[in-house]
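Re: the 148-residue chain
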Amino acid sequence: MKPPPPSSPYWKFHRQLARFNKVVFRRTKGRLGGTFAGSPVLLLDHVGRRSGQDRTSPLIYLDDSPNLVIVASKGGVDAHPSWFHNVMAMDSTEVELPGGIRRRVRPRVAEGAERESLWARLVDLYKPYEAYATHTERRIPVVVLEPA
């Protein structure tokens, strides 16, 4: 089973839910919207490569202190999500953690043994990642956000 195309009603609903999550997260400093299905959520700021507009994506994260780890899961069968391309084109950006804590971070993609170790921990944190990986033809990037 392939994920729905990016223009489907599913993805429109997904984008609306993400916008709602961002508003709730920011207004309550993460007391609401700071978790999804029991997993911690951060807000990742990025700039659209084509539009130049500021964007924010709520994403499940793994605290691998001092780093934060996120996964570029829902993009499509053969395409990474737009936030992944946007953030990888930036030298650094900011994330917002529950409590209103903001951190400046530098993104990089984990490779090899580091990726495998982090992937296993991310799947333990949020089981649907494993199922989603079987429905895509791409290797899902694990992104390490290092302190900038």
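The first strand starts at residue 35 and ends at 36.
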